[in-house]
Amino acid sequence: xxxxxxxxxxxxxxxxxxxxxxxxxxxxxxxxxxxxxxxxxxxxxxxxxxxxxxxxxxxxxxxxxxxxxxxxxxxxxxxxxxxxxxxxxxxxxxxxxxxxxxxxxxxxxxxxxxxxxxxxxxxxxxxxxxxxxxxxxxxxxxxxxxxxxxxxxxxxxxxxxxxxxxxxxxxxxxxxxxxxxxxxxxxxxxxxxxxxxxxxxxxxxx
Length: 206
Description:
Number of domains: 2
Shape: elongated
Largest sheet: 5 strands, antiparallel
Number of strands: 9
């Protein structure tokens, strides 16, 4: 996943290439973003696009690209390959081109479109998708403050706190750290508190 939405411009032999990238949850959101970019740049000769949405681990992926009038395979597909090489999902990219009068040839177009996207991704930054287990830890109110403090100063990720008859802290832990967290929790609660598994959750980390 990209760290933030953004835009970046490059110039190649007097042609302007303006790349826009954005996080999206579905194809409808991607389509809306593409429409906004087209509306904002009506004078561009091409608005070439690529998107990857879904979870590659499950195979439930939507992958699309569009050359928008450029020679087939010189714009959208190279952009899509950049997204795939960086293993990015839930993202749409649009590269708008204003022709500068000098033809770039097929190879030049591939390099220009893929390069504009690569530079934009470098500028906005990317996040890694890391699968965690969500663990629920219920403790009496008189223990909650200290345990919350310890969690915030630990390698484990405190996600939520729910105040009820007890205080339930939701903690995200990688599978590799699960046993270590159990030992950490036992040490701080005298072995009287156990974490309940609430399923998996993907976190996006730098």
